[in-house]
Specification:
Elements (H helix, E strand, L loop, with lengths): L2 E5 L2 E4 L1 H7 L4 E5 L2 E9 L39 H30 L21 H8 L15 E2 L15 E2 L5 E6 L2 E5 L4 E4 L6 H5 L4 E6 L6 H6 L7 H4 L4 H4 E11 L3 H15 L2 E10 L18 E8 L21 E4 L12 H4 L9 E4 L8 E5 L11 E5 L8
Parallel strand pairs: 2-14, 3-7, 5-6, 9-16, 10-11, 10-15, 12-14, 15-16
Antiparallel strand pairs: 1-2, 3-4, 4-17, 6-9, 7-8, 11-13, 12-13
GO molecular function, one term: nucleic acid binding
Family: Belongs to the MT-A70-like family.
Pfam family, one: MT-A70
């Protein structure tokens, strides 16, 4: 069960369980031969057991505020304008997070979730620095292929023919009802059922546009520019001016729901609400918050930390005057502001929780869904990005024969 608790404030998600549901039926291809296997995400990737409270040795529940007394507080006049804006936003959402998280965590614990205690956790396996973006960059130096000018029909992912796939210039689709473990570019990847993807950067979006599909839900996780990213060099950031050039109006249905992940930097939030969405002809209708907790329900960082906050923002937008469509009835269903999505975060950098379950009531039945700047695939979704296969690498999964008893442990 992916949604382990739901209330007026929002939802508590079991992200690991939701991912495992995507691979309940799986086929492993070796050339033209196939075998049934069971794929499960390595559970310790979602076992954050210890809160990162550097200035206190005591674990603090998600319903309590944490402010270090050991670190000297700066006066308000010492803050620059950006820091003042961040504090103002935090002051606005702080009581919402405190009250909502406490209620939802209590509800989850009553159902036997968020009860794991512990001080340490095993780190999830980390691959060498992902080379997919570098491969995409090299591909952009090549002239456009004929495939990019074709009718947009995806190439079909089949075990015996994966070596001939053009992952950079054509959409690739797993049409099967089962997930597939296949070899791509010399490495094994797990591809969900009914999923379609394009591995490219923003300069090679034409194959996605050539499909001429209109999507009812578009989730965007932009590579925002910030100092932390610049220092770590984890990925190539994209200027705001480039984000405006995304062809969202060509990809979105008339009543499409837009969901954009935003950093806690208020300037990014203002940009999305007042520049990016209007540029595409959409209007921001709500801000939701992803609250990160440990396996025992504590904030992963102090709520009042000046360094890192235990939450991130999602801005929801619509292209029409209808707030949303209620599944089954077709009646308008308002999207409430400041809903919380609570989950244990992945220990892998930049892996966001899946939003399929919580967004389902706000989109039409059998909606076509698209994720941009994706780093993983979802069953039934189309995904695009220069690292779109990153978290599909087989090393992040436990793959066992389907009849192997170890697959159930």
């Amino acid at each position: 069960m992916a949604v382990v608790a739901e209330g007026a404030a929002g939802w508590v998600l079991d992200t690991s369980s939701l991912l495992d549901q995507s691979y309940s039926r799986c086929i492993r291809w070796a050339g033209a031969h196939k075998t049934a296997v069971t794929c499960r995400c390595k559970s310790h990737c979602f076992q954050t057991l210890r809160s990162h409270f550097k200035d206190t040795g005591d674990a603090v529940s998600a319903g309590e505020a944490v402010t270090s007394n050991k670190k000297r507080k700066r006066k308000r006049t010492d803050f620059n304008q950006g820091e003042i804006d961040i504090q103002a936003f935090h002051d606005k959402v702080r009581p919402i997070i405190l009250d909502g998280t406490e209620a939802l965590v209590e509800s989850a614990r009553a159902r036997g979730c968020l009860t794991t205690a512990g001080e340490t956790t095993k780190d999830c396996v980390l691959l060498p620095e992902c080379g997919l973006s570098a491969l995409c960059e090299m591909a952009t130096q090549l002239p456009p292929t004929d495939a990019e000018e074709q009718d947009g029909l995806p190439q079909i992912l089949e075990g015996g023919s994966t070596v001939n796939l053009d992952l950079f210039s054509r959409m690739t689709e797993n049409k099967s009802d089962s997930a597939a473990v296949v070899t791509l570019m010399g490495e094994e990847y797990v591809v969900p059922a009914k999923s379609t993807f394009l591995l490219s950067d923003i300069s090679r979006l034409q194959p996605l546009l050539s499909c001429k599909a209109k999507y009812d839900l578009v989730v965007i996780d932009p590579p925002w520019e910030n100092k932390s990213v610049k220092r770590s060099r984890r990925y190539n950031a994209l200027p705001s001016s480039q984000l405006k050039k995304l062809p969202i109006p060509l990809l979105a249905s008339s009543d499409c729901l837009l969901v954009t992940w935003v950093t806690n930097k208020p300037s990014h939030l203002r940009f999305v609400r007042h520049e990016l969405y209007p540029q595409w002809g959409a209007e921001a209708v709500a801000e939701w918050l992803w609250v990160k907790v440990t396996a025992s329900g504590q904030f992963v960082f102090p709520l009042d930390s000046q360094h890192k906050k235990p939450y991130e923002v999602l801005v929801l937008g619509k292209f029409s005057s209808n707030s949303s469509l209620s599944e089954g009835s077709g009646e308008s269903l308002p999207i409430e502001d400041h809903r919380l999505i609570i989950s244990v975060p992945s220990t892998l950098h930049s892996q966001k929780p899946q939003l399929s379950e919580v967004l389902k009531p706000f989109i039409r039945p059998n909606a076509k869904c698209l994720e941009l700047f994706a780093r993983n695939l979802l069953p039934g979704w189309t995904s695009w990005g220069n690292e779109v296969l990153k978290f599909q690498h087989a090393s992040y999964f436990t793959v066992t024969p389907a009849d192997d008893k170890a697959s159930s442990t």
